Please model this.
Amino acid sequence: MRYAETGYNLEVDLSRGNIERVASDPRETELYLGGLGTNAKILWDRVPPEVEPFSPDNLLIFAAGLLCGTPATGCNRTIVSTISPQTELMAFSMMGGFWAPELKYAGYDKVILSGKSPELVYLWIYNDTVEIRDASHLQGKGAVETAELIQKELNEPKAQVSAIGLAGENRVLYASIEQGRSSASRGGIGAVMGDKRVKAVAVRGTRDINVAKPLEYMEQCTEVLEFIKWREDNPIPGVIPILAVLGSPQEMAIHDEQWHTENFMWGNARERRKGFWNEDIESRWTETMENVRTRLISCYNCPLKCGATINVPGLNTYMMKCFSKLTYTMAAYADLDFGFRIAQRATEYGLDAYSTPQVMAFALELYENGILTDDDLPGLPEDNEDRFFWLLDRIVLREGIGDVLAKGTYWAAKEIGKGADEYAHNTIKKIEQLPLKLSMLNPIYFLMYCTGEKINITQIEGQFPQAPFPKPEHREKFVKDWFQVPDDRFKQYFLDWEPRGEYSNPYYPTPEMCCDIVDWQEKMHYIDDALGMCAGLSSFHLKPPYHIHNFPKFIEYGAGIPMDEATLSKAAKRYRTLVRAVNIRRGMRRKDERPPEDHWKKRFPELEKELLDTYYQYKGWNDQGIPTCDTLRDLSLDYVAEDFLQRGVLTDTEEAPGRETGQETDADEG
Amino acid sequence: MTDAKQTKTVKTIKINADLCNGCRACEVVCSAFHAEPKYSSNNPARSRVRVIRDPLRDLYVPVYAGEPAGAECAGRDKYIIDGKEYDECAFCRAACPSRDLFKEPDSGLPLRCDMCEGEDEPLCVKWCITDALTLEEREEEAEEQEEPEELEFGLESLANKFGWEKMQDALARMAQRE
Model:
C-alpha cells in the first residue's frame, strides 16, 4: 500500500484526447518526495531543452504535495510546473485552496497535461471517471465565473475548479491559474494552460488517503495545531505586522500598511513615499477594507484566515489574498478602493498581480517620456485610474500596444526599443519583482535574489530575520525559544548581527555565513513545495510550526518513508539541484543571476562577486552556477551528469572543486 | 421504577456560522477519527460533519449527521436569512435519498455523529480553533423514563429472528465460556 500519496498520476494527452491512469514508482518518491520534486524529475525526463513553452511537447503538471489530503494543518498546495513562456525556464508556481486535497481523494497525485487540444476544453475528474469536455461556451468567461458555471453544469457544488480567464486563453505571458481564493500566478503558467486550450480542471474525490503510522502522525498534527494556537496568542515582538503572526501573510486582516506603503516603491517601482502613512489614510483605508471585506477565509484544513471574500458594490464578488491588496494601488498612485476595483477585473481575467500592475505603470512611464506616443495608445483616457483599466483591457485582449505589453516589461521593452529597456528596470530572469529599492546591500538578500529559481523573493526568504534587531537584549530574547534553527550557530550569526558598525551589512554576516543562512531558508521552501505545505505556516515565517526537526517525522509517519534530517536535507538538495539542472540545460548561467541594478543604491562589486563565488562553491556548483559532476553523482543524479557531459555543458576541466557543506566559519570577519 | 426527577447532561455543539472560515478542518479530523484503525485514513466524504459552503454568496453552514431519513421530504424548505438564500436541505442533519450527504461513499450506509465517543470533546470542536464550533454542556432535569436501550433493541431483533429458546441457549453457552 502507498501512504500519503495515491501512487497514481493522470496522463492526459490533449492532442489525441487520450487519458490514462499511470502508477508512479515509489522509489521516485523516496528520492524526490513528491510535488515539486517529482515534477522536476518528469520535466527533466520528458521536456528536452529544445521544447518551446508554447509547444505541444511542453508539459503542464498539476501536482498535489506529498502530504496533501492528510490531516497536517495547512498542507493543501497544488504545485503547477511547466516551462515558463516568460523566462523560458522552469516555472513552479503554487496555489493553496482546496484543489490538491480533492485530487488526492479522487485517487491521483498529479495531472500531467501534454499535447494541445484542437478546441477549448475542460477536464472533469470524479474518482475513476475522467472526461475531456467541451468548453466552447466558457470562452472569454472570467476565471471565477468559469468555476461557478462548471460547478453548476456538473451539478457538483463540491467540485474544486482551477481555471484560466481571458488572459490565459489569449496567452498573456503573465496569466495566472485561479482557484477560488487562491492562484498560481508567477511565470505565466496560465498562458501555457491557454496554449493547451484547457479552460479548467475540475475535480471531485471521495476516496481515502492513508497514513503509515496513524497515532504517531496524529500526535505530530495535534502538536502543530497547538503551536499555531500558541503562536496566534504570542506574536513576535519587534518585527513588522505581517511577520509577527503566521499566515501567507495576513494582508486581508491587517490594516497597518505603513511598512509596505513607505518602504515599497510606487509607480513603476520608482518612488519611495516616506511619510505617506498617516492617521487619515489609515482610517480611510481601514474603512475601505471593512466595507468590501465580507469574511476572512481560509484554505483547506487551516485556521489562518489569510484570504477574504471581497464584495465591491456593483461588481461581482471575488476572493483575494496577500499583497495583491496593494500592488495595483501602489502602481497607480491610487487609493485602496481603486485596488479592490481593478483587482476584481484582473482576477476574472486571471493575471499575476505582481507583474500586471508593473507592466501598466511601465507603459505609462514610457508614454510620459515620449517613448510611447498617442499613436501607440489611441484612445488612452485622461484620468489616471481609467488609464489602468484601459491598459488592462488592451493587454488581455491583446489589442494594439496591449499585444506587446502582454509579454511583460522585459520582452515588451525589447520590442518597443527606443531605450525602453531603461524602464524595464525591475526584473530578474525576465520576471517583474516586488517593487523594492533599498539603500545598503544586504548580502543575504543579494544571494537570494541572484539564485532563487522560483524568482520571487517571498519564495526563498523566511526563517531568519530580514534585518538585525537594534538592541542586544532583544536579540537575546529572540533566540531564547528559537528551536527551529537547524543548528545553534544560526543563533550566533543573529546575535552578532548589528544595524551598523563592524558587524553590519554588507560585510557581516560573512559570505560563508550568508551561504549557510540562504541555504537553510531555501531548503525549507523546497521541502514545503514537495510536501504541499503552505509557506505561511512554514518556510516564510520566523519560528514556524513546521521546521527541519518535525518534517522528517511527518514524512516517516505519513508517507512511511524512513526519514531523518540528513536524509530529508539531501532529498531537498537533490530536487533543488534538478530544478537547476533543467534550467542550466535551457541555458541559464551566472550572467542571469543578478538583482536589478537599482535594487540597492550602495553596491559592492567585489563583495558581490565573492558572495556568489562562495555560494556556488558551497552548493557544489562551478563558477557558472552549474552543478559539478561530483555534486550530481553524490546526489544520485548521475543521469544529469552524463547529460551535461554529453551536451558539453560540463567538461572534466570545468568542474569546480567541491566543498564540505554546513561547515562552521569564524565570525570575526569585519 | 418511580417517576422521580433526575438530571441528565445535554451536550450541545454550538455552531457559530459567522465565525466559520470554511477550512473544513472539522471534516478532516472527523473522517480521520472514525477511520478503522483510528486516524489511519482521511476522506471528508466519510465525515459526519460537513460544511455547506458557497464562498461567493458567503454561505457557511457546518451541519452534523443526525438520524437518517428513509424517504425524501414531501416538501422542502428554503431559508433566506439576512438576505442570503440557503439551499433547501442546507440545515438538515439527515442522510436521505435526495442527496449524497452523510453516506459512506462505498456502501451508501448512513453516517451519524457520535460526538467522538471516548474523547473529552468532539474532535471537530478541538480542531476548530477559530471557535465556529464550541461545546456546551448543561444539566437538565428530566423525567426518568424507562427507555429501552440499544442492547435491548438488538436482543429483541435477534429473538425475533431465531426464537427465544435458541437465544437463551446461546447466551448460556457464552456465559459458561467466559
About this structure: The radius of gyration of chain B is 20 Å.
